[in-house]
Structures
1.
Amino acid sequence: MAEIVIIGAGPAGISAAELLVANGLKPILIDEGTRAGGQGYRRPADDLPLDMTKLMGSEAGRYVALHKRFAALRSQIDYRPQTLVWAIDGQRLHLLRDGRAETLDCDSLLIASGAMDRIAPFPGWTTPGVFTLGGAQVALKDQGCLIGSRVAFLGSSPLLTLAAKQYRAMGAEIAVIADTTPFSTKLAAMPALLGAPRTLLRGLSYMAAALRAGIPMLHGVTPVAVEGDGRVEALVLRDGSGRERRFPCDAIALGYGLKPETQLADLAGAAFAYDPDFRLFLPKIDGFGRARPGLYLAGDGVRIGGADAAEASGALAAHAILADLGRAQDIAMIRPLARRVARLRDFQRGLARAFAWPREQIAALPDSVTLCRCESVTIGEVRTAMAKALGPVEVNRVKAMTRCGMGRCQGRVCGPALQEIVAAGTGQGGEAAGRLRGQAPVKPIALAAAEEPA
Amino acid sequence: MERSQAQFRRVAHRSGPPITLSFDGVPIRATTGDSVLAALLENGALARRLEFGAEPRAGFCLMGACQDCWVWSAAGGRIRACTTPVSEGMQLFAEPQGMAGAHG
Amino acid sequence: MSTQTTDVAIVGGGLIGAWTAFFLARRGQRVTLIEKGVVGEQSSGVNFGNLRLQGRFPGQYPLSLRSQALWEDFDALIGEDCEFEQTGHLYLAYDEEEHAKLEGYAKVSESYGLAIERVSPADLRRRWPWLSERAVAATFSARDATANPRLATPAVARAAARQGAIIRENTRVTAVDREGDGFALTLADGSRISCGALVNCAGAWALEIAERFNETAPVFPAGPPQFVTEPFPYRIEPSVQAIDGSVIFRQIPRGNIILAGYPRTAADPQANRAPVPPAKTLAAMRALARVAPMLAQCHVIRVWSGIEAYLPDMIPVIGRSGTTPGLFHAFGFCGHGFQIGPGVGLSLSEMILDGETPTPLEPFAITRFRSAATVSEKFRKEFD
């Protein structure tokens, strides 16, 4: 019997597991966390009395449904929570569970590892009280806490207004919603957003709600600095007309959209290609999410697309697994899934224009700004090293020269900004700047984890 | 140690058993189910001091990705605060204890 | 197509090539260093960073001691920092057989003038209390040191460039031909370089040139799997090595601990890949936790390996070609080339410019492979 392993118990992993179970298989579903649902559909603790309907609005129905589906599924799969896959060696997965190393061999591997926020640094961004936009939502859903009492939302993402709305609903003061993409750019991107009209309208309604509530909302801002000694006291930025504005606050939620967490796909041997719309290196996949026979990638962990795309792509990947195991293909089921995934992932290209990754702002940041927060490497140190090099450099060389990307997070946070600093410095573009080479372990593992059982 | 103003503001309260832990010697009250980071930030604005220059940090991504919230434990272990639930009697620190200086 | 003329062409931009270019350029030679990737990218950039004097092949000591003096003068000589630290080196023995081996190494080192301290278990506990108590004996060599391999080669190459050397990165040599008393190199873009002398320090790729001139050596590639931890409070000053090679580690002042250890694993020069089997990483983690139990909760954050060139007798090829005047070889450093890099570069420059070098290099002649190769004891123990 083929051993099918799914890494990630979010919407993509759950949908894949469901389809496999419906076809008589019993996949292993591994998740690093304690509760299934992933990040976007993070399920609050049972004892945390959060009104999820209030928090999730129109998404609440899907959210409840996903968790019901998982509950029904659980006894029919081999579910392994609190298990980290730290290395992949051919068909062998290396796991960490309860602080101990284990191995698991698989025939078919589906990686649905989700995403994290994409971050652009600015002066003071490492000050306590600055958190990622996704983190601001996790604080609320997972811990029942606001990241502060008076919160600024900074970056460029449709989630800025959603998160601000949720925060306001839970009693926070909103200092400002500050989007670095000019409003005119958003308007120009509008035609590209018509592919998902419900989503577009929802986004617009969040913006309208914010305006009605008197929340300052700025577009085309340039972050200038975080003020505060050891903690956030204010956010300073330049507005669209170049005027410096200061917003007293005690927390900042920072985010420029999401980027897939592709470290496991890298270790599993997926090939990567540069996507100029997203300015990211992404795993190469076919229409089913197949990276190669035996390796399948789904959900936000391979292409940002949101929960709907995650569910559909998880199902598609499961279809591919079944096909590769010699089962007949159900074209009638597959076609609509494929269409939905394509449409939703294409929508992200429009979003990427409307909520632009601020590469010019990054390239213009002063030398003193910390680029790698793990190793405390500044943009200036990176620029100096690049100027000293004997020829054009790429990110792995810059990492070797400066330690940028060598810390505990292994470039998860600084990687995209490092790519832009290198691209701007060499003048040779984002693709030539290269991709940080992945290595095990995917997250830090203690020496004690290797201890053999007595 | 002076108790500084909390970073996090709790808006939904768990109903589970209370837990006492300490951070840099100061007792902190939390509830079963809270993450270590939430407990620390409900009581202050610090999780650790960066190894290079002692800059204060208070976590960043809150989802186990950025690795910026590893705190030191008296038990000798290290804890990633945002993905670890509190447990009774934890003694946590922003900096390594009793290890610095004595190198050879 | 264009032809550039130079006095010396050096193929291979690792540490050996960079130092050779530096010394030649400093003496006024026109030098061109050709590297298929970027300088120091291969073995020179991924090695452990030991500048170890203990435990070297006896015939290598003159070269090694000459090199250490150059490392000690690195900042003044090269004008940049490579994080050189005179950490000292500690060899640990865990049984009587290893103790005897330790003593053998110590006597050889002392015969070349190195000061070696024998360290009893009680002294080990007193001086290095973080060590577990299993060692039966140890030797400490205070002059041994470490440096950062990622920084060293690029720094030396830049210094060579400042002396007038031409450094050509991302440049592949596609053909090498005899031209009169010198050589003509054809590059991938079709251009040519004419040179009087040619230095082959192309590491795991060096046989392509050697065999072009009808000589060879039984080079094989292998990788040194390593890992690095997160920063941890700085406690470990010396570079430490169990004499059986199972664990080799050092802690840098920033706090990260770097670990290497035998056996070495597979490396593929054609695909430019050297994977690290996770099972090896786990074994190395166990080994380190046994030797330094205080590190049990220290976290590994990354593994890596690289492509090194080895020879079965575990000593490199250094010196004149056996077939072709004007051709010089320096490759196959068996994972210990970092420390002797500067001395090799200096000696090669002397051979090229003065016809001879005061450093004895006879044991390293490529001609030794004309008869059957001796296989070193180390070879059997240190590979998978």
2.
Amino acid sequence: MLRAYTLNLDDSLMMAAKTKALHDKTSVSEMVRRLLSEHLGIGDKTAGDAPDERKIVETLKKYSSGQLKRSEAMQEIGLDQVELGAFISLMNEYQIQWPEINREQAKEEGEYVSRAIAFNLGETNEY
Amino acid sequence: MSIDRKKVSLLLPEVSPVISLAHGGEDCLDLLLKAGLPIVITDQVLYEATHGHKDGFPDASAVREWYEKHKAKIKVVKTKIGEARAELMNVGKYDHKKFANQGEASVLQAMNDGKIKPGPYLFLFEEEKMANPSYFGAYPVHLISTYGFLVGLERAKIISSADDILERIRLNGRPNFKADISIEEPEKLINLQKSPTG
């Protein structure tokens, strides 16, 4: 299970880590996990804790297919809502497809937007 | 429906759409203005969208620069949540985790407090739509996703292709950019729904 911890680090080190994480499209948390796993020789992620990893993948897949909201998926994995970066890293790490756009819904929303623009321009009286 | 000639405003209850547009570049953020819809945002949502600039996050920096450039055109509503956060920051007791997801709560609070006035609104969401007031006073409120917003701009001929913008945002470090696909109706956190007669 992933949990949030506080680390005391130099500002300059954290800044460099964030820059590197942005460049590599990962997160500082993910980098720390990988480095610690390598250093301690216990394998990446939750080595020896396979059921949790399976649950993580299962949860991510449910999010991918739209069965779970993002907040629900994060909660099931044990992530705090502010740890979006870690969640994104997990999605990328396990190569889970991001939820697809519901284009029919977007068309309906687009109609509201274009109607609002026309309404504000005085081109229609209907909104 | 036919309503009083009060302009439809674009309310930003969460930061995700702004952050996504920031990934597309300044001209994508400008699309928020090009729609010609007055923009309303709370102090807390604005804070959440921009505070990361101190940690060197380029998207937060882009939003901050964009806001500074256009702040005369953006209405920022002060809220109790925003003021509480500012007070805690002033005395060094601010805990970001305790204020997670408070942006949307600050919007609902401001609506209940009357700091955001009733009117026709579009609520711009991206990930989850937690509150669906349907009506605010006598005026309809519609929830739209970032992609839906782009589709509307395409229909209004403000942009040539919503998909081009979508692709740009995804390629520029926002691979998770999407429209909401929640299969359940959004939960109503508070009861703001009123009949069209108010």
